[in-house]
């Protein structure tokens, strides 16, 4: 697990909400506290789709909504003259990207038990904090996959020009 303080909140938020920087992620959850408290559950409601749509990978490719489809909604809830009181967004790396990371890191033995590589974005009066994590279907003593994800996320932030420091 990695805890990261974002140094330039405005630039980060522009990359999160207005650019394609985080489009390779899925939304698990978003909580936004402004003039109201808004909660978005990213888990897609299967009952909304027909059987055919559920089988069509273009219509229903993931269990969670893609961030690229949800960021505009979040932006609409946040935009204005005042910043949110609190915000928490939980994103998952897309499964195919997670498996590629495991494969490149020589850790495919974890693929079957990996549920997600996760990043939690939390904003409040103290600033903007990102926390990485891994979710497995079973407990693992070995932290190889966790370290792969932490290192990959550091590289991602650096490559996208996001200024940060580890805390």
N→C terminal distance: 11 Å
Q: Pairing-aware structural class of the strands and helices?
A: alpha+beta
Global morphology: globular
* Count of distinct strands: 8
Q: How many helices? A: 5
Mean pLDDT: 94
Order of helices and strands: EHEEHEHEHEEHE
Beta-strand share of residues: 25-35%
Q: Helical content, roughly?
A: 25-40%
Count of the domains: 1
Break the fold down into its secondary structure elements and pairings.
Elements: E1 3-6, H1 9-17, E2 25-33, E3 37-41, H2 51-55, E4 65-66, H3 67-78, E5 86-93, H4 95-104, E6 114-124, E7 127-136, H5 144-159, E8 164-166
Antiparallel strand pairs: 1-7, 1-8, 2-3, 2-4, 2-5, 5-6, 6-7
Descriptive account of the structure:
With about 170 residues, this protein is α+β, with helices and mostly antiparallel strands. It has one domain (about 5-165). It has 5 helices and 8 strands; from the N terminus they run E-H-E-E-H-E-H-E-H-E-E-H-E. The protein has helices spanning about 10-15, 50-55, 65-80, 95-105, 145-160; strands at about 5, 25-35, 35-40, 65, 85-95, 115-125, 125-135, 165. A hairpin with a 3-residue loop joins strand 2 (about 25-35) and strand 3. The chain is globular. The N and C termini lie close together (about 10 Å).
Give me a quick take on this structure.
With 167 residues, the protein is of the alpha+beta class.
């Amino acid at each position: 697990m990695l805890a990261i303080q974002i140094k330039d909140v405005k630039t980060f938020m522009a990359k999160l909400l207005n650019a394609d920087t985080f489009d390779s992620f899925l939304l698990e959850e978003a909580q936004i506290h402004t003039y109201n408290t808004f909660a978005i559950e990213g888990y897609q409601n299967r009952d909304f789709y027909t059987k055919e749509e559920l089988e069509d990978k273009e219509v229903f490719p993931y269990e969670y909504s893609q961030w690229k489809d949800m960021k505009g909604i979040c932006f609409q809830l946040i935009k204005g003259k005042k910043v949110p009181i609190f915000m928490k967004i939980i994103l998952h790396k897309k499964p195919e990207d997670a498996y590629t990371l495991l494969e490149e890191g020589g850790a495919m033995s974890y693929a079957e038990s990996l549920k997600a590589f996760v990043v939690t974005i939390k904003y409040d009066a103290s600033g903007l904090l990102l926390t990485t994590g891994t979710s497995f279907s079973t407990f693992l003593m070995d932290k190889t996959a966790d370290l792969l994800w932490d290192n990959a996320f550091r590289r991602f932030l650096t490559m996208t020009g996001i200024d940060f420091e580890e805390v």
